[in-house]
Specification:
Distance between the termini: 81 Å
CATH architecture of the largest domain: 3-Layer(aba) Sandwich
InterPro entries: Aminotransferase_I/II_large, HTH_trans_reg/aminotransferase, PyrdxlP-dep_Trfase, PyrdxlP-dep_Trfase_major, Tscrpt_reg_HTH_GntR, WH-like_DNA-bd_sf, WH_DNA-bd_sf
Helix content: 25-40%
Family: In the C-terminal section; belongs to the class-I pyridoxal-phosphate-dependent aminotransferase family.
CATH superfamily of the largest domain: Type I PLP-dependent aspartate aminotransferase-like (Major domain)
Protein name: GntR family transcriptional regulator
Oligomer: single chain
Number of helices: 13
Keywords: DNA-binding, Pyridoxal phosphate, Transcription, Transcription regulation
GO molecular function, one term: DNA binding
Order of helices and strands: HHHEEEHHEHEHEEEHEEEHHHEEHEEEH
């Protein structure tokens, strides 16, 4: 009756099924505006349901304005409800069956199997049991204050950074920090200066907003800032402790020159401390922030030290930027979830973070050695390593080779996932002879087998000009 088909075993109640069916018919024009609906008794009899069920359905229609009802008169459809719906045709996708990924050299992926999950679970439970009702309310855009204090202590222990907890702001990872900073630091007609190659995170945010970009070429010592001396700059973004993706360390002379330029031209430096926790030879590299905190916005994250889905990062902000940050963050998402912040506070306070990083530094150093030995065994003098002995990936240069789309497709078909450096460049023709091999999440066996599979693929696709052994 009236096109209504009821499913009595459906999880949706019968009254709501009647409501949804009549609503759809009205919107599609199958029931005209002004048309009189059958009485509740008549429709109930036709559908084989109780009159109360139909009354409930009519009440829903009346509440949402689909029908008009007056005492003593039959209900009828309201005016102006017909909507012409265009059919959306999805493009046909021709999906090709591909072999599964067997050797995944993706970058920035920690070994999650070695994280102390039982200990973390205990801390989450304790946080759940100790949080007061007041702590479960909105706390504001700065973050959980005890966590800011523990991060300040941890930065002193791990980086020798003297940071006031008042200047630390908790974020949902580094990416959220980039979104906020691009809006805060943008100057009309001025460009954002980025490394090339560089991480796509902040680059994508800037490009999506249509802001100007100025690229700084990268060599084995990081960004060359000489190209921005005569430019109008909104801000400069660098990864000085372990340049992503080539791995160089920004030397003191370039750091000092960049700070002087920032002061002269009145812009801020965004320092993304990428992968700095995992350095395998010598002491940790000091951040630019330690040279001049007044011109540097320091961005850190716990995604690689703990686990990516934690989504807790932090930013150390100069005081002139803090009012704008609070305003933007307050109308973005207000704050991070408090439960994980409380657990992380305990994780830092009890030095479990220090212990975990020390352990993982040894583990990743061993994996790095396995990777380098496997590469040298397979490729011998045909490959050169880029970057400092740190981080969770190695950049490999194959002089004379070019890794384009076809090669990457061949890798994927062979069950290998690997990234060319060129995809992170402003000009795709740059660094075409380099590949990135992430290893943090791989076992020793996976590393050796993956390198051997990569060797066989490159040998098969090379022109014969390379001597592997």
């Amino acid at each position: 009756m009236w096109g209504i088909e009821l499913q009595k075993r459906n999880k949706i109640s019968l009254a709501r099924q009647i409501f949804l069916s009549l609503k759809q018919s009205i919107l599609m024009g199958q029931i005209s505006q002004g048309e009189v609906l059958p009485s509740t008794r008549e429709l109930a009899k036709g559908l084989g349901v109780s009159r109360n069920t139909v009354c409930d359905a009519y009440d829903m229609l009346l509440t949402e304005g689909f029908i008009v009802s007056r005492q003593g008169a039959p209900s009828h459809v309201a005016e102006g409800l017909h909507i012409t719906q265009k059919e959306v045709v999805s493009p046909k996708e021709h999906k090709r069956e591909r072999p599964p990924i067997r050797w995944d050299f993706k970058t920035g992926q920690p070994d999650l199997s070695l994280f102390p999950w039982p200990l973390w679970s205990q801390m989450i439970r304790r946080a759940t049991n100790t949080l007061s009702a007041q702590q479960l309310e909105y706390s504001g855009p700065k973050g959980y204050e005890p966590l800011c204090e523990e991060i300040a202590h941890w930065l002193m222990r791990s980086r020798s950074m003297d940071v006031n907890p008042e200047d630390i702001f908790i974020t949902s990872g580094a990416t959220q920090a980039f979104h906020l900073l691009v809006d805060i630091l943008h100057k009309e007609g001025h460009a954002f200066a980025l490394e090339s190659p560089s991480h796509p995170g902040i680059r994508t945010v800037i490009q999506d907003r249509g802001h100007l970009l100025q690229w700084m070429p990268v060599d084995q010592q990081g960004a060359d800032i000489s190209c921005i001396r005569d430019k109008d700059i909104s801000t400069v973004y660098v990864t000085p402790s372990h340049q992503f993706p080539l791995g160089g360390i920004f030397p003191a002379t370039r750091r000092a020159a960049l700070i002087r330029l920032a002061s002269e031209k009145d812009f801020y430096i965004i320092e993304d401390d990428y992968d700095s926790e995992f350095r395998y030879s010598g002491a940790p590299v000091s951040p630019i922030y330690s040279m001049d905190s007044s011109r540097v916005v320091y961005v850190g994250t716990f995604s690689k030290t703990l686990f990516p889905s934690l989504r807790i990062g932090f930013t150390v902000l100069p005081k002139p930027l803090q009012a704008k940050w609070k305003h933007y963050r307050n109308f973005m998402d207000v704050q991070n979830p408090v439960l994980e912040q409380v657990a992380l506070t305990e994780f830092l306070r009890k030095r479990k973070m220090d212990k975990h990083i020390q352990h993982m530094r040894r583990v990743y150093a061993e994996k790095r050695n396995v990777l380098l030995n496997a590469i040298e065994h397979s490729f011998s003098n045909a490959v050169q390593f880029w970057g400092d002995a740190s981080g969770l990936h190695v950049a490999l240069q194959f002089p004379g080779m070019e890794f384009g789309k076809q090669f990457m497709l061949n890798c994927r078909n062979a069950g290998i996932r690997i990234q060319p450096v060129s995809q992170y460049c402003s000009v795709q023709d740059n660094h075409k002879d380099k590949l990135l091999t992430g290893y943090g999440h791989l076992s020793d066996t996976q590393i050796r087998e993956g390198v051997q599979a990569l060797f066989e693929l490159i040998a098969k696709n090379s022109s014969g000009s390379l001597e592997f052994k």
